[in-house]
Amino acid sequence: xxxxxxxxxxxxxxxxxxxxxxxxxxxxxxxxxxxxxxxxxxxxxxxxxxxxxxxxxxxxxxxxxxxxxxxxxxxxxxxxxxxxxxxxxxxxxxxxxxxxxxxxxxxxxxxxxxxxxxxxxxxxxxxxxxxxxxxxxxxxxxxxxxxxxxxxxxxxxxxxxxxxxxxxxxxxxxxxxxxxxxxxxxxxxxxxxxxxxxxxxxxxxxxxxxxxxxxxxxxxxxxxxxxxxxxxxxxxxxxxxxxxxxxxxxxxxxxxxxxxxxxxxxxxxxxxxxxxxxxxxxxxxxxxxxxxxxxxxxxxxxxxxxxxxxxxxxxxxxxxxxxxxxxxxxxxxxxxxxxxxxxxxxxxxxxxxxxxxxxxxxxxxxxxxxxxxxxxxxxxxxxxxxxxxxxxxxxxxxxxxxxxxxxxxxxxxxx
Amino acid sequence: xxxxxxxxxxxxxxxxxxxxxxxxxxxxxxxxxxxxxxxxxxxxxxxxxxxxxxxxxxxxxxxxxxxxxxxxxxxxxxxxxxxxxxxxxxxxxxxxxxxxxxxxxxxxxxxxxxxxxxxxxxxxxxxxxxxxxxxxxxxxxxxxxxxxxxxxxxxxxxxxxxxxxxxxxxxxxxxxxxxxxxxxxxxxxxxxxxxxxxxxxxxxxxxxxxxxxxxxxxxxxxxxxxxxxxxxxxxxxxxxxxxxxxxxxxxxxxxxxxxxxxxxxxxxxxxxxxxxxxxxxxxxxxxxxxxxxxxxxxxxxxxxxxxxxxxxxxxxxxxxxxxxxxxxxxxxxxxxxxxxxxxxxxxxxxxxxxxxxxxxxxxxxxxxxxxxxxxxxxxxxxxxxxxxxxxxxxxxxxxxxxxxxxxxxxxxxxxxxxxxxxxxxxxxxxxxxxxxxxxx
Lengths: 415, 440
Prior knowledge:
Chain A is of the alpha/beta class and 415 residues long. Chain A has 14 helices and 9 strands.
């Protein structure tokens, strides 16, 4: 197993509000900030932790589909929106569907490891509310295989891909327990979002989110066979950013090591985009990426104290618990329903709301996850802070693209 | 000839009007759907949108484009199934664009009635005047020898249209409510001469358009306007009574307030007359007054029109001034018949009505309330025990509305009390039917 040839630190993470339905300031018919705003806001928030732009050697911007959502390519050259002195620094945009944020971090890590940079400003961004959901579904479907599966696919392409997974899981392991677990995951996402002022569901005032989920039966005529809207992550505008640095980069930034987290495991795996899943109830690419990350870190998943997983849909969270090895096949539903993944559970997940509670500005999500892990491991998570047990000091992220086709998993511990 | 065959060549007369454009949209969408079915490949579907107003027909194109887009977006899951055998159209956006183009392409605008030649299904939605309709139908009779005619008249007896135009029974009343794409209700009126085949065809069309069909006897005004005109006359009489010493503007406003909030209706009676158009209200009055042994005209309506106060809607759907002047859809000034001008509505006018029944929740809040029936019972229960001016007016209004409803059943215009109640609830968005036990 390869290891990282030198220590890599993640620090100074920040993210913007996730703007979209649910946020009181969101109005679909009123003008809203664009990509430029989110890149600048997230990047400048990182810069505020640093002595100045000289502490940044280069930039990486993770983004999925600005070319269609915003008719904008060439995002790398937006770097100097963060600070004019960043002009002429190297900067690129990285894409891998909803794993774009995770891939941006992996790219930054490679830059530092190659010794071309000591500090990389890593930004994730997506602005999706530019089109109605019915057209956004087309754009997001680009994360699947256009020539192979789009025509046969449902109008709501990705929800229905994961609805198939939910249906297969229900068939094999039971409808009621799966549906209950999906409702519990939604409830958890809302409760965590209420503790995170940047979350899209922060002001969600449902008296009983679980009951609301359970009462809303899936409607195949207008949506999907096995999912309702509450099972889905949000349509969001937002940005997230952090600094990926070597020891030298950290020193130059004047940041004490104990304010950083260290990357100790990195797993990146892709499946075959043209092939359907071998088993709809298994996230095999996620399983492989996690296996590699844990192997590099030299730890067992039971040593992880806090998780940020890619809950694009409630069913994905259930399948991810199994892919992580926290429970066996068919046990993910009960694992979630029993409360293990809540902030007060054994393995807290998505403590700031995750993709369903915080929101899912697709290209930003992978970076946003690392920011939340940084906050948790350094005790900066505010109202959604959980206790990190001394014998489980690690945090783990899973940034997934498409139907479990590109996955970046990271393992961190406090430096 | 079955419905699908007839739908290959359709004409809508008055297609640019408020009702005609909605009817055109519904039919064009159904025809577009048919054109996509594999068994209809190669068949031509054509809708002649005929109107005297060229500007209106240009507006119709814009309306069809916007509305068909909305429909396609809303029904995209089903639409993708219809497009399953079109490998060139992959994304939702591709399919929506093709569907909208298809709807637009099958509509042929025309300003000449001759464009209807050869149509097998003809919808009429022109001005509510017997003579005008009869004259148009006489021409259509010869232009379209095989056609069935569906008239959107809201008041003229179908048998009379048939006789006047010599249609030989090829006509049925198919009365949409405004706006036709949204309103679920269609009143269906058979003349004595209407053949069973046409009745069956109308029923099938209603199902296709997902409408609720309620039969009415062929009596001027039918059920909907049979209630509305008499209900409006009650409001006019009450306002006239109250206007003594207060002026017309204030009297009309008080009756409007009571008929909206005390009766829990979506809008007050004078706002509703403005919405329909004072001129349209008068046309219906004239038809009903001529045919029925009952005085159904009102001097205030005639006077308002003489003074050029007409109501009705602008092409963008906003309300034109009528008994009230509106800002953002809300009445802000009331027309004073004596001063011949609008006077601002003064919040203090409402004071003499007294308080609303305890626990009042407005119509909108109750439309989707799970406890609607209980809330209505509580509201009218409280009202029954009140003796304010507002309560007196409301109780008299309820009683008159109930009397009108019962009369429609007694005179066999409606087949049942339930039909009367459903027409008012579906077509007028009332929360309860006029035939009820509230404050009885």
